[in-house]
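Q: Could you fold this chain for me?
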Amino acid sequence: MAEPQHFLTHSPLEDAQAFLLGTAMCALGLQFLTHLGLVTGQTAGLAVLLSYLTDWSFGTVFFVVNLPFYILAVLRMGWRFTLRTGIAVALVSILSDVFPALLSFDRLDPALGALLAGGCIGLGLIVLFRHGASLGGIGILALFLQDRAGLQAGWVQLGFDAALFAAAAFVLDPVLVGWSLLGAVVTNLIVATNHRKDRYIGR
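A: Sure. Below is the predicted structure, expressed as structure tokens.
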């Protein structure tokens, strides 16, 4: 998910702790998802689905699928945003590969796991947005197409997510797809509620 170019004034120490917290929250949410065999939306969801279909880890797939979008990020958002986003993506990729060796679940209800995953990822994204970064991917492409072709960014992202979950229905149990949708809704509600121009951005 991409974030419009806007940077608040933070010290390097504040940025560092925010990047660690935000990426750790996202990586934790992804642990809930992958433990249950669920997916999420946007580029992270694509990476999760591809990791299920290949022998690659989520962290590796997530890092690789984001690479082409950095070109668009430079054109649309500038170098500073692109660099910060690259760091955030790299941290989530690394933490997502490290966490399974440090964290395991004896029992995790799919409904609770989907809610926790959606909550953790949503909160992690808000932290990253506040510090001028994102987790890249489809959001950047959507903004680029909006500029160049006049397509609404929100509709582009929605279309991608619809196609992603439709593809997941051929790979995952329909019940798991349903729980995945629940987690994605929670993530988007958190972002929509806590990242509004009329309340939080630009102050």
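A (continued): The chain has nine helices and no strands.
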